[in-house]
Amino acid sequence: MTFKPILLGVVALALVACNGVDPNSPLGKRQALFKQMLKTSEDLGGMLRGRLGFDEQRFAAGAARLDELSRQPWQHFPQVREEDSSARDELWQRQERFRQLAGDLEQSTAALVAATAVRPLEPKALAPHVQRVEDACEACHREFRAY
Question: Which SUPFAM superfamilies is this protein grouped with (predicted)?
Answer without folding.
Answer: Cytochromes
